[in-house]
Design goal:
single chain; 518 residues; 2,3-Dihydroxybiphenyl 1,2-Dioxygenase, domain 1; Rossmann fold; 2 domains; elongated
């Protein structure tokens, strides 16, 4: 049986910082970017050596803006990367230059170790190890100091001996030396899995800055299937077998509850890209519905040296989508109840393929559901909170216009349902906040309409013919008209939900009314 580490999968909350660390600082190559197999809306990045070899692969599930997790029992707590003998000093200086958090040096199993944290706080160890090197990309790191491959990982198990036996029995690792509470398991490739006795530790909590699983190697799919059959026969734990396109994988939890994947070495990452172009294209799982639309929802990033959005810390959490050929216009998107900053991006991209999209995330929650302001009951709105959030929205537009140099003459605000309700209210409370807006299935939420002048403001309102809130949307339209806004209102088929008629209606208004003469 072939044994060794195939890859390790972790979770990040900031894709750009992640790319800058693993490509820019560590010098790994981005070898593949895909949508997640369990959730195509989740970006999955793979880093490795130049040839994307098993044994050098670190992969990240991107939970953009997600909450931090907590390492504990039942998790991978550390990753060790092998570096050449005598390179610790180089990497310490490099870490200081790149402002990477360093936690010091030490000795582990006779090897010198430099401990540091990645941008999400996960512990990375650089280990001076006598282990065969893989070819890394030619970057700014001298060849004599480049990372060689994965050296090993540390598992936290509260049943250490059972975990040791499990790895030896099913995955081909052999028992090596022990040091304090750690039992080292060695593969025939020379990499290691250190199992730390975590009896009494708190259980791990998934989230950014934690590892999802470690994958061990198999020669081919047949070996993966053979191990799956053996585990199933012994009924040791629940197993799941998957075709991950680039490898066949088996998932199982070992006795200490760490998620272990067994992954075949082939067919490999050159299945759909050449060796020279690895990592340049974004791929989605074969069964992804409307994959081109789905790509719009995934977070974007730039490799070191490439142009990227420099995000600012503003009032609302937000995300940009930049099209291949931006036309200078920007659509600012406010989602409906329960949505997030990406929900309206597919619709907006269909309506305006060359517009830059800026999605915002509402700050209010009710029973765990994300909204833009509080409701006190069905159709009873917290007027104080509506006004407070309307002020926050005005402040966001002011800050974003300066921070991102948005052209006010080419900016359109678009809101759906709860997002449209706040946008409509904010326009009445803060005239001049935006000059162009699209309200999808809005209702009037202000108990008193202020006397304001919205002359020169252009608004498209799209209502649903069978929408139970249609009359409330018509009252919103009337209030805006009475305030002097130039309102185009259309009634589309369907109800409160968005449908196939919305994107063409938005595209038509953008082309013929939004940016034309007042």
């Amino acid at each position: 049986m072939t044994s060794g580490i195939h890859h390790v999968t972790l979770i990040t909350a900031d894709v750009q910082a992640n790319v800058d660390f693993y490509v820019g600082f560590l010098g790994l190559r981005l070898v593949k970017q895909t949508g997640g197999y369990e959730d195509a809306r989740q970006l999955h990045l793979f880093y490795g050596d130049y040839a994307a070899s098993p044994g050098a692969l670190l992969t990240f599930l991107v939970w953009q803006g997600g909450s931090a997790g907590q390492a504990g029992a039942g998790q991978v707590s550390e990753i060790a990367l092998a570096i050449p003998q005598g390179s610790i000093g180089y990497w310490l200086e490099r870490a200081l230059t790149h402002q990477v958090k360093v936690e010091g040096t030490g000795q582990e199993f006779g090897e010198t170790v430099l401990r540091m944290r990645d941008p999400d706080g996960f512990l990375i160890k650089l280990v001076s190890a006598d282990i065969a090197a893989l070819e890394m990309p030619d970057r700014d790191i001298p060849i004599e100091h480049r990372i060689k491959r994965i050296r090993g990982v540390t598992l936290l198990s509260d049943v250490q001996e059972e975990s040791v036996d499990y790895l030896a029995r099913y995955f081909g690792f052999t028992k090596g030396a022990s040091e304090g509470p750690i039992q080292r398991m060695v593969s025939d490739m020379g990499d290691v899995i250190d199992i730390r006795d975590a009896a009494g530790f708190w259980p791990g909590a998934p989230g950014a800055g934690t590892a999802d699983h470690v994958a061990v190697r198999a020669v081919d799919a047949a070996q993966v299937e053979a191990v799956e059959g053996e585990l199933r026969k012994r009924n040791s734990s629940l197993t799941t077998l998957h075709d991950r396109n680039y490898f066949t994988s088996l998932y199982v939890r070992e006795p200490g509850n760490v998620l272990i994947e067994m992954a075949s070495d082939g067919p490999g990452f050159t299945l759909d890209e050449t060796l020279e172009t690895l990592g340049q294209a974004l791929f989605l799982p074969p069964d992804t519905p409307d994959p081109e639309t789905m790509k719009v929802m995934l977070p974007q990033f730039g490799l070191p040296g490439e142009e990227r959005v420099a995000y600012r810390d503003l009032i609302y959490q937000h995300r940009f989508f930049t099209p291949d050929r931006p036309d200078g216009s920007t659509l600012v998107l406010l989602h409906g109840t329960g949505g997030d900053e990406t929900d309206l991006m597919p619709l907006a991209h269909k309506a305006a393929p060359n517009a830059t999209l800026l999605g915002l995330r509402g700050r209010s929650t009710e029973d765990g559901t994300r909204r833009w302001f509080r409701a006190l009951g069905p159709a009873i709105f917290d007027q104080k909170d509506v006004r407070f959030e309307a002020g926050a929205l005005e402040a966001f537009f002011e800050e974003a216009s300066g921070s991102y140099r948005l052209d006010p003459e080419r900016l359109v605000a678009l809101g759906y349902s709860n997002g449209a309700n706040l946008l409509g209210a904010a326009m009445l409370l803060h005239p001049g906040m935006v000059q162009r807006a699209i309200l999808l299935r809005p209702v009037m939420v202000l108990d008193a309409v202020p006397e304001v002048d919205l002359s020169g403001t252009k608004i498209l309102i799209l209502l649903g013919e069978k929408d139970a809130f249609r009359s409330a949307g018509e009252r919103q339209a009337e209030a805006l008209i009475q305030s002097g806004a130039e309102v185009s209102m259309r009634v589309l088929g369907g109800g409160h939900e968005l449908g196939s008629e919305d994107a063409p209606a938005i595209a038509d208004w953008l082309s013929h009314a939004a940016f034309g003469p007042t």
